[in-house]
Fold this protein.
Amino acid sequence: MDTYVERTEVTVLRVLADMKGGGPAEAMRRLESKLRSLKGRKFYGVFRLLAEGEQYYACVEKWPSDDESALGLEVGTIPGGLYLRRKVFDWEKVIADGKLGSIFQELGGHYKADRSRPEIEYYRSMAELHLLMPVLGRDVVPRP
């Protein structure tokens, strides 16, 4: 079931994925390797389709005690606003099967996506992933 959520901007530490190399999984491994502990951290994947190609950042919410220079990580923000949320369970299998992109495509086909903001993966737990599609409003795209 899809639900609308209003999110606030999040400051993150991030690693840019090499989309011609190891991709998002390698970027997430690099990010995790820089952190002392993963416990209590909020992880995100941020995706945009740009004119020059796909852009993906593996992100973790920045804590006040984080020193990005010492960690060798870039600081960025995940924009707030209205998003459509779809919960995905057994997300590791969905990713391994290459089906994550098709879920975002399905959402984009049914709702008025805001292409000025990125699509977000919020890794809520090892069992639950929230896919967040930025939307312009609560209107459903009419079907022909």
User: Anything to note?
Assistant: Residues 10 and 76 are 8 Å apart (CA to CA). The radius of gyration is 15 Å.
